[in-house]
Model the fold of this input.
Amino acid sequence: MSEIVELDGESLTLAVVDAIARGAVRVRLADGARQRMAASYQWVTDAAQGRVVDDQGAPLTIYGVNTGYGSLARVRIDSAQIQELSWNLVQSHAAGVGPAMDAPCVRAMMVLRANALAKGASGCRPELVDLLCDMLDADVVPEIPSRGSCGSSGDLAPLAHLGLVMFRGPQGPGQAGFAWFRGERWPAAEAMRRAGLTQLVPGPKEGLAITNGAQLTCAMAALGCHAARSLVKVAEIAAAMSFEALRGTTRALHPDVHRLRPFPGAIQTASDLRQLLAGSQLADSVPEKVQDAYSLRCTPQVMGAVRDALTYAIAQVSVELNAATDNPLILLDADSPDKAFSAGLFHGEPVGFAADHAKLALCELAALSERRIYRLTTGNLSSRLPPLLADGPGLGLMLPQVAAAALVAENRRIAMPSSVDSLPTCEDQEDHVAMSTTAAHRFRTVLANAQQVVAIELLSATKGLWVRHAEDPTVVLGKGTQAALTAVESVLGGAHTSIPADDLAALVAAVRDGRILEAVEGAVGSLASVGAPGEVADA
Done:
């Protein structure tokens, strides 16, 4: 049986979210969270029915419970219409556009919304989280359009499309929404029926509780950060292979050098490179060379800055994994009769900054990798490797380098931080929005491009090392780089093909699924983890 993770609003990590997104673990609501949610829901129910009064004995006006939404917050809703209000909100906010999100990201969004509700500050029933857990268990994947959110008040449109699958109207099931079940696309009500699940009629505030939060943004950022941690290590492995193929000098990696400018990431990268290159007969094999070009010599400085930037991003996203992002918040321990606090925890700025920061870091990771690819394929820069690493007429790796340049150029075009942008919405009630969802989308694009560039470097460095071995069959590689070369050769089936795209597709898959990293760490031990305190252990 799969491992079961309990959702308590406090304990999610990037690795657990990634596992849930892949369907590797199951989830359920923790007992303590169930009790908190029940108490919060009871207060909202009482308020909706006029049983909670202010100091003068008048029924409280609670945003989103007995009022309209956004700029209509001053419009009082009759108690008989409160249930209809929640369903109408879900329907009216389901305005997403563009291609659908991929299933792992949707699953991550679902568990993040469930975990936010599990904190017990949203005023909704535990049954909402139970249903989300059951949908994840049955692999009912709502169809979520990828565009249409500014990240404030959270990802309203994407989460409303989730609500179309979870909920039905007071009059019975309708034809709203779509979901995937067992590989087939169905109307939401039919997908739920086939999975043996029952849609809920949203109660007071429950439509708002499902839609109010930046969980699509956070899902993309969380999965991206988790993948980026692995990519940093693979990029260091590729750098070490290039270092050997180019006969680099290791004096720039000496620990005493980096103690004089003690950025944590640079110290970690230099240590990793020394670990990977230990025992190499190619490194330091050109006696007259006193220093290398920046793309080798400054790898600790650039990759170290990448590490430090991702540490910040991971810290931010890790807070968001276990955050309440609803409005209003139900604080039952408050002294006043009004336990509902309208605030701005839904605003996507903290995660938008994190996604933008991570995106910029990976832009530089890819740019540095491309510069090493260029040196490997440029005869007068490569310590006498064959020009273009060609091993026959018309062959060589000219076009893979061109592809890497194109990917780096694309990254630079989308490197502008999205979170500095803002357009007012909702009749200027939402007069500053985060654009965090755009930041997260662009982070994912840069991540995918960077993975491709690193795969191209792995292919180029492998061919360079084959040339070095042909020059001297007895030459000994570093312990880590030898393990990497063997892993790449296994992925390629022993030798590269004449169609680089085929080799690169195989290598990109191996970069993403961790095969190369696992093989290298199996040989030399773990490389330095990337992440914030508390996240390192599950990296």
The radius of gyration is 27 Å. The chain has a mean pLDDT of 91. The first strand starts at residue 4 and ends at 7.
